[in-house]
Write the structure tokens for this entry.
Amino acid sequence: MTTPPNASLERTYEGIRVLIAEDEPLAAKLARGALRLMGITQVVVAEDGLEAMKQLAEFNGNFQLIISDWNMPNMTGIEFLRTVRKLYPDMPFIMLTSNANKEFVLAAAKHGINGYIVKPFSLDQVRQKVEAVFKI
């Protein structure tokens, strides 16, 4: 029995820390669960954009990916994205939304998101978007 040529190239997310900004506990839990299934265990969850900014400061920006909801109290996802882009212009950023209309897509693209996921979402959708960001 022969081994496929890519068998030794295992997908690994070791050392990756992800910040999730999501005010809906169920959506945050689902996103975190999808990341854990991928082997990403360093996940920090914030309930809104303001809390996420505090986490960014606390970790000195040491995140390899941000997943953020669009609609959140205190600081919306787009406000959070704008702030992140000023501080960390190359930070990979995936937006969650329940409304993927043309205006959303254009506004998100204008601010440089790396992808978006429409709610409700599946574990597989999260995996696909994260793999696309890390080109795995």
